[in-house]
Amino acid sequence: MDGACVYLVTGGCGFVGERIVELLSQQDYIKEVRVFDSAAREEVEKYSTDTTRVTVRRGDIREPGAVLAAMQGVQVVLHSAALVDYRGSVPFGELRAVNVGGTENVLRACCALSIPYLLYTSSIAAVGPNSSCEPLLRGDEDTEYSGEVELPYGKTKAMAEKIVLEANGKKLSNGGSLRTCVLRANTVYGERAAFLQELLLLTRASHGALNHLEPEHTERNHTYVGNVAWMHVLAARSLQLEPGLLAGQVYYCYDDTPSQGVQVRLQLLSSADPSTDKAARHFGYKPLFTWEESRLRTAQWLKAAAGSPAPPQLHEKMS
Fold it and tell me: Fewer CB within 10 Å: N-end or C-end of the chain?
């Protein structure tokens, strides 16, 4: 593979997408990181370096023409744009138009423009919970988990995953082949995490009580946003260098954040080993940030964003 590459990040102004852009801009084998986002912010161009230029283009992932124009001259696409909804507040048709229709537009553009590499940012919601609310306990990429996905958002992510994986090996207009793989994020925390800001406001409204409905021993995977982004950087590069290994594969995002969900949220607001190691085995992934670094960075951001509240106390909410 000769010469520096142009990478495109859809949704590159989002919570995870911006961190991907920041880390990509630090790689000297990339000459341009192009951001495509409906909420594009020119300030993201601040990540430009002496060797890598960051450019921003505003556009809607649902518009094929806008997608095609943004992807001209690109070699690698990291498709992170998505409409996220864990509460069922967004109509299914709107979710499908962005998460599935937008992905179809990106895949069509890859084929038309002969872009050989696509990395898709999925979610554990594409796997479950299922409609029977059965737990997926310490599973990995090979764990079978049956039943219908319960959440509308999860259904659209599963649909998008399917078409991305089915597109692996598809012929490009220049006669080459498209290589795709999928990264599944779980609960992502860190600076600018909206759910943490909401939790902070709720604890303040409850006079310092962090109410919860789940037992304290419940396991819930959290991953720091910087490590999710770093896995994207490594996977995208390895997809280029070792397509025979990564193409058609699915990887869960993980780091060394403890798995006790309630306690993790308590510690994040106050100041475990992963089930899988597939990413480490296939492309040498190791977390860029330790749990302690991740916790401190997040706590410092929360303190700066909303002041320093008294440490929250844990209260189990009965229902």
Answer: C
